[in-house]
Specification:
217 residues; mainly alpha; Zinc Finger, Delta Prime, domain 3; 57% helix
Length: 217
């Protein structure tokens, strides 16, 4: 009876408030670079009967919205996890989602793509359908060339721009797990391969978090 009641407590209406609370918790844990909380809320949603492909779609969106080109591989990881789950299904496929969730949580974050597209949409709403400048129009016919289509267009030389930013999360240190399991670590990266980089990054975040917690309020 206890087990049945516990499982019932996990279940939620997929169109109700708890559905949105849990996906919000997962999204914010990913954004806050907390892989332990991300795994926890992912597990909660799967245990509650959420459609895993819905979770996968949200992580694909997250890869572009919150990580973007700070780590272009994140989108590949998220899409591959969705495809892997679609191929394997439950219960084995949950590990593909877990792998993607940990990767997204520990990846450097940037919302530059999201902000950029937001600016584009506002501009289109304000200015409407502006005409394409003549020099970058396609000119497949002589008439179009006579009208100035493609005139003075020159193929540009390759240019490279370098811009470095800190890959550390925001200075504000927050807890993303419930109070009862606050500080619990589910993900423990090894010293092998890319996980070594993740481990070093997480250790640095934790040191910064400890320093922030020690600051006088």
């Amino acid at each position: 009876m206890r087990k049945a009641l516990q499982k019932k407590a996990l279940l939620y209406d997929k169109s109700g408030e708890e559905h949105y609370n849990l996906i919000s918790a997962l999204h914010k844990s990913l954004r806050g670079s907390d892989p332990d909380a991300a795994l926890y809320w992912l597990g909660r949603m799967i245990a509650a009967g959420e459609d895993p492909l819905y979770i996968a779609r949200r992580m694909v969106r997250f890869a572009s919205e919150d990580i973007g080109n700070a780590d272009p591989q994140a989108l590949n990881v998220a899409v591959t996890a969705m495809q892997a789950f679609h191929f394997i299904g439950l219960p084995e496929g949950d590990l593909a989602l877990a792998q993607a969730a940990v990767y997204l949580a520990t990846a450097p974050k940037s919302n530059a793509l999201y902000a950029g597209m937001g600016g584009v949409k506002r501009s289109i709403n304000e200015t409407g359908a502006l005409p394409v400048p003549l020099h970058i129009r396609n000119a497949p016919t002589n008439l179009m060339k006579d009208l100035g289509y493609g005139k003075d267009y020159k193929y540009p030389d390759a240019q490279f721009y370098y811009h470095s930013k800190s890959e550390l999360p925001h200075e504000d240190h927050l807890d993303y797990l419930p109070d009862k399991i606050k500080g619990k670590r589910f993900y423990r990266p090894t010293n092998r391969g890319y996980e070594k980089t993740i481990k070093e990054r997480m250790e640095q975040w934790r040191r910064l978090g400890q320093k922030h917690d020690k600051k006088p309020s």
